[in-house]
Design a protein that fits this description.
The protein is built from 8 helices and 10 strands. The protein is α+β, with helices and mostly antiparallel strands. The chain has one domain: Lambda Exonuclease, Chain A (Alpha-Beta Complex), CATH 3.90.320. Strands 1, 2, 3, 4, 5, 6, 7, 8, 9 and 10 form a 10-stranded mixed beta sheet that branches. The longest helix has 34 residues.
């Protein structure tokens, strides 16, 4: 689905491990960045420490052959490697499940076999009709972009349209409700043909988080509406107000003591 250009120019640009969003050439915030910077996550703080420790143990021999500075650099980057691998795994599981349901022959890596089987079960048992997959979108008033995982309808639930986040991580957290609410407030998304499509055309009725595990799947309904929206806006405001450069600008230049040359 695509439509003529109706809005300011919006783009998602991929670079390295990440991506950025632009409105008329100006970089804007991403949903996950705002949530990451604006809300303290005690569980994530503990996870970061555990990931670095696990990485050090698992790569002990390899790290021991490096100079100390390179070891430190590898350890600093390890949590991002693990995070990016988790994101890649989620997308790969979804893509493989889609191909299998289309009757295509695919080679599924052994480490993903259980997750792919669970994803296929979900899509089959829910009789999923995909509307948009990994679609970038933008909110113009609040100037943020993002990419949601899945917008779908289900023959098991006539008349309902689901905005979904697809997770293969350890658990589903309440913050996902803020993430989905932010996505649901997009003015438009980039459709399959690259055109700008108003998100309101799809009539979203439900937000869900789909937890894909190696042996099963669980679908969690997530709260939505104005209360959740206000919490996202508050989190976004906190993220923007407390950025390092802005905070550091609150400090003035060093003062001199009377009688001492400046």
């Amino acid at each position: 689905m695509s439509a003529p250009t109706l809005f300011p120019q919006f783009k998602r640009r991929n670079h390295g491990r990440g991506h950025s969003y632009y409105i008329d050439g100006e970089k804007v915030d991403g949903v996950t960045t705002l949530l990451g910077d604006g809300a303290r996550k005690k569980a994530l703080e503990a996870w970061n420490g555990n990931v670095v420790a696990d990485y050090a143990v698992d790569h002990w021999d390899e790290l021991s052959k490096l100079p100390f500075s390179q070891r430190l650099d590898r350890l600093k980057k390890s949590r991002y490697e693990v995070r990016d691998e988790a994101a890649r795994r989620g997308s790969e599981v979804h893509n493989l499940a889609e191909q299998i349901l289309r009757g295509e022959e695919v080679a599924v890596p052994d480490e993903l076999a259980g997750h792919v089987e669970s994803a296929v079960r979900f899509m089959d048992e829910w009789e999923v009709e995909e509307l948009l997959v990994e679609a970038p979108g933008v909110n113009l008033e609040h100037r943020y972009g993002g990419t949601f995982d899945l917008l779908f309808r289900s023959r098991r639930f006539p008349g309902r349209t689901f905005l979904a986040d697809w997770k293969t991580s350890k658990d589903i957290y309440g913050e996902t409700a803020l993430q989905l609410e932010a996505y649901s407030r997009f003015d438009f998304v980039l459709g399959t043909g690259g055109g700008e499509v108003p998100l309101s055309e799809f009539g979203i009725t439900d937000h869900v988080a789909i937890h894909i595990k190696a042996d099963t799947y669980v679908v969690y309904p997530m709260q939505r509406g104005d209360d959740v929206w206000q919490r996202f806006l508050a989190t976004a405001a906190s993220a923007r107000a407390n950025r390092k450069d802005d905070i550091e600008a609150l400090r003035g230049d060093a003062m001199y003591l009377p009688g001492v040359a400046a």
